[in-house]
């Protein structure tokens, strides 16, 4: 073990922040750390929008389902998968860009996630707390309007940053044996392992909520996946020039 691994394993989502501000030099350094992440074919297909305007932040919080910390955190960043600058590169060289491919959507989204995880780890190494905000995709069309996103750009998620004003427990993860397979995909023992894990998660929720939440992981997942999952996303992404072929 080393300090980096211990830091990674100690991650918690922070949803309550102190009033201390973050200076721009710190945020710039965090974004530079994000830029150092691996990037598919050197595409560098992530754009970060730092949202400072209070009114815009408040509306983004409402778009995300009323998550107040979007407005209250010291900083709020939106990570966008961005293939527009690649069209600019083609234009600079008189080339016709072939866009709309599913592979381009995957690589741009993966670039964005890798970039954001670097930012998150860098922030936590400085004593900051973070929480990712996938809820922006609840009203992704309005988020795109607020951020004035052009074609070939879409918001993947947001990130709240600030100094933590809470100290939650680390949420238990699935057993390694469920995640790490050797040579082939073998899930013959996964049900038994998940049942054991379910009890860990149930105890975690009981502790975290003072007994007000009593739910296992598999119960939570099964309840989530019997519902529609943002069915508006496909039409929006196609409108933005993604997933057309």
What's the topology here?
Layout: H1 3-9, H2 24-35, E1 46-50, H3 54-63, H4 69-72, E2 75-82, H5 84-92, H6 102-125, E3 129-133, H7 140-146, E4 153-162, H8 176-179, H9 190-209, H10 217-224, H11 233-239
Antiparallel strand pairs: 1-2, 2-4, 3-4
Helix pairs in contact: 2-6
Descriptors:
245 residues; alpha+beta; NADH Oxidase; 2 domains; 11 helices; 4 strands; flavoprotein; Nitroreductase-like; NADP; Flavin_OxRdtase_Frp
Your description of this structure?
The protein has helices at 3-9, 24-35, 54-63, 69-72, 84-92, 102-125, 140-146, 176-179, 190-209, 217-224, 233-239; strands at residues 46-50, 75-82, 129-133, 153-162. With 245 residues, it is α+β, with helices and mostly antiparallel strands. It folds into two domains: 3-168, NADH Oxidase (3-Layer(aba) Sandwich); 176-221, no CATH class. A four-stranded antiparallel sheet has the order 1-2-4-3, with helices on both faces. The termini are far apart. The model has no long low-confidence stretch (mean pLDDT 97).
